[in-house]
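Render this sequence as a predicted structure.
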Amino acid sequence: MNYRCHSLSVDSAALALNISRRYLFDLMDETGESFAQMLNRFRLEQARQLLADPDYRHFGIADIAFDSGFGDISYFYRQFRRRYGEAPGAFRTRRILVGPQE
């Protein structure tokens, strides 16, 4: 199961894990996150790592978003800004020019 797959769904995740959809929801309830929130968290962390990596500076932000599993660039920008408090481009510039701060 790959969280970066655009077509990943609760049903496909349950099938890959060989568990019922209901049991997957029960497991998710224990984490306090919905399936969509968990996917977004994994995808945003992946995108953030790539944006901070100087080896990926030649990749466009949209390319990184799509490679991280986002299918909609506007949604990616909104989610990134909400989670990290700045736009992906500003984050990338700060991390590459100034270096890691966290």
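Summary. The helical segments are 10-17, 21-31, 35-52, 61-67, 73-84, 88-98. Residues 10-98 form a domain with the Arc Repressor Mutant, subunit A fold (CATH 1.10.10.60).
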